[in-house]
Amino acid sequence: MKCIQQGWPKSAEQNPLTTNFFKVRGNLAYLDGLILYGERLYIPHTLRPFILSRLHIGHLGIEKCRRRARAAVWWPNLNNDVSSYIAACDICMKYSTNPIEPMIKTDFPTEAWREVGADVGYHDGKTYLLLQDYFSRYPEIVTLKSITSKAVIEACKSIFSRHGIPVVLRVDAGSQFTSKEFQQYAESWNIRVNVGSPKHSRSNGLAESGEKTIKKLLKKEVDIYQGLLAYRSAPLESGLSPAELLMGRRIRTMIPQMNLSSNKEKEIFEKETRLKSRQELNFNRRHKVRDLNPLSPGEHVWIPDANQQGTVIGTSEYPRSYMVKTDNGIYRRNRGSINARRHTDVRPDSQREEEDHQPSPVEDSEITDTVPPNSVPATPTKTPPVASEPNEVECPVSRPETHPTRIYTRSGRLVKKPQRLGYDDPVDPVRRMS
């Protein structure tokens, strides 16, 4: 306040207390005991946590809260303080949604029935097991008498006895596939089981999409076997049908056709590779994907689908999969199904910076009620920096240190002050504001 009324020093180096305000000194004014930045009210550091809580009423996003702040109040580093406050909000973290991560393109199999996806589905009160080949897209469906692992194993044995044993079986995290009984069966038959993350159906996308197709057939077609025959004989984008890719021949249908054999596995492999690359590009572009920050052991997180808080204890053997320990047990979830808790110092950065330079020259005595009306604040003694406690968590927003003889921007660029004729000369504050 004293600098606003009596004039500013020629440079911020002459008074380090003015560093945060020297660049905007032309916008500061004193009116009726209040400090104004344009038409916005300056908030001292003691009141900033309260103002931040008011700005975040309704738990709006970062940009909306920033706009609300810019319309009414101001202090140095306002935008960063708003971001840090919202990042530390537990309620926002609990209900936030993660952006979709880039698609992990799986390698196309080199031969038919090498990689197979499996999924258990339900329709019209019945349970069925669907298996679909990743190379040919050929589906096999079996009605199950129960949803136990034993029933699933018997159905798999029946299908594998016709088409052979696959090398890789991709499944979801259903109890039928994660049970000890099924794992022992897969090991005895020399099958490598890839279990997707719970609540993350994209990890077994082919089987999931195949289940939707089969459900449509069950709803539309009176004879399910005629529907399966039509699906298995319909050409794919490669020009060959699933039956041709799996069996090496055309199967006979209701439509008259020439039975010509074809063996174009190499050509199909190249076409499918290009198709998957285009699919990956379209997926990433459509969903505006963004890589999520990896989680570290010991980090506190929130699992939305389980409505549980937990602590990360490590990663799984599968990509983007983490093991999280909660009060109810250990969960395995994909990174996209985990909300990370941002550990930040709730105090604004500017408050921590200004605490080393108290009292501030622009702080209003009527607001803080700490400086008598006619007293002049004494120049504080600069204290050496104190090392952080080992368990102290620093704010993720980093800024360059203020050099005692130089001025830097927030991005770290050195500001070279221009030499303007008469600009740095002492001027009457009233004439300067005019």
Largest sheet, order of strands side by side? 7-6-5-8-9
**What's the CATH topology name of the domain at 115-247?**
Nucleotidyltransferase, domain 5
Distance between the termini: 18 Å
- Helix-strand pattern, N to C? HHEEEHHEHHEEEHEHHEHHHHEEEEEHHH
CATH superfamily of the domain at 115-247: Ribonuclease H-like superfamily/Ribonuclease H
Work out the radius of gyration. Answer: 33 Å
Q: What structural category characterises the helix and strand content?
A: alpha+beta
Main sheet characteristics: 5 strands, mixed
Helix content: 25-40%
Count of helical stretches: 16
Number of strands: 14
Question: Based on the structure given, which CATH architecture of the domain at 115-247 is correct?
Answer: 2-Layer Sandwich
**Overall average pLDDT:** 77
Which stretches of 5+ consecutive residues score pLDDT under 50? 355-403, 429-434
Which shape, going by the Cα principal axes?
Answer: elongated
- CATH class of the domain at 115-247, named Alpha Beta
In percent terms, what proportion of residues is strand? 15-25%
Protein name: RNA-directed DNA polymerase
Domain Integrase catalytic: 95-273
Pfam families: Integrase_H2C2, rve
Organism: Nesidiocoris tenuis
